[in-house]
Design brief:
The protein has about 375 residues and is of the alpha/beta class. It contains 15 helices and 15 strands. Strands 3-2-1-4-5-6-7 form a seven-stranded parallel β-sheet, with helices on both faces. Helix 5 (about 120-125) links the parallel strand 5 (about 110-115) and strand 6 (about 130-135). Helix 3 (about 65-85) packs across helix 4 (about 95-105) and helix 7 crosses helix 11. The radius of gyration is 22 Å and the shape is elongated. It starts with 11 loop residues before the first strand and ends with a strand.
Amino acid sequence: MSSLDHRLIPLRILHVLDPADLTTVRAGPTSLLPWLQAQGHAVAMVAIGEAATGEVECLGRRDGWWQWWRSGRRAAITAAGAWGADLVHAHGEAAITPAIELARGLAAQLVVEPVTLAAPTTLRGLRDGGIAAVLLPSEEHRSTLLADPRMPRDRAVVVPAGVDTLVPASRTSDGALVIGTRLRRRADVRTLATAMEHLRASRLAVTVVASLDERLGDPPNGMGWRIVAEGEVLAACDVLVELADSDLPMSHVVDALAAGRPVVCVAAGALPELVQDGRSGVLVPPDDAVALAGALRQLAAADQRATCAAAAFTAARRHDIGLVGEAVVGVYRATIGGSSAGGATTWKRLTTERLRRRTSNRQRTVKT
């Protein structure tokens, strides 16, 4: 071993993913790949589908199984070998099979990051002996995966999704509770409108700042909502309400937590992993206007919002791309070195003290 610390040696990581993941949200690959490049690591990709690849070098593309099997995978293996890939990282279920083929052709270690474990085909794919580590967003996901007796326990590593947060400027409250929300379904518009009626009936001063999908038309008559662009919602509100239970709005929720805004959201999908019920926000059942009104009534008091703000900061740092990126690189180096990824890096080893003291070097402030 040379005098150069092996931990400082840059890596060359080949990512297999849908390029649409690099443009739709600021979580997962969208934050991880630029962070890796900023740390001096080299990244390239093999694309799934026909979406544009952006600024990441594309070494191959899987567009249809037959063409990929005939020539695409061989061309991708040749290109990745010439590029010098140290490791393959698969993002999402569709990337698992082509990533396994690439890793075998390159004789490289493979890290897999599934989005969901619900599909039986995903669990079967994760049993492949060529996979060195499976990155999972929570302990609940890890327990689900390890319920399969054929799954090696040291393969599952819990690492939350990293987010490059956008933090709005602080806001001075004028006494009224300002609720910010993004509405994408008519059912969510009705739920929030009904909740507002309950709050106003109890003589609570409350206003709504909303980003409304243009397909939904105008907000309900007489509600007095202020419609703004999506990027302006967070800076104008005291509390964020997120009623979506699919198409996870992870980056939007983490932005709110990082800004010290409590979040009221539905107890569905991965949202309970982001928002701690009763601490950084409140979880409510989907389409339940009464429960939503009750949650907002709790957060109407300024002292209650201040208490939630402290917990929100801590919750947001859990997804800081600097901390998450370090954990992922730890997994990379462990697998390349032939040691157990689960033993080398787990999220629990990033202590509370470290979370409190560390902030992302990529965190940005949006001035209003």
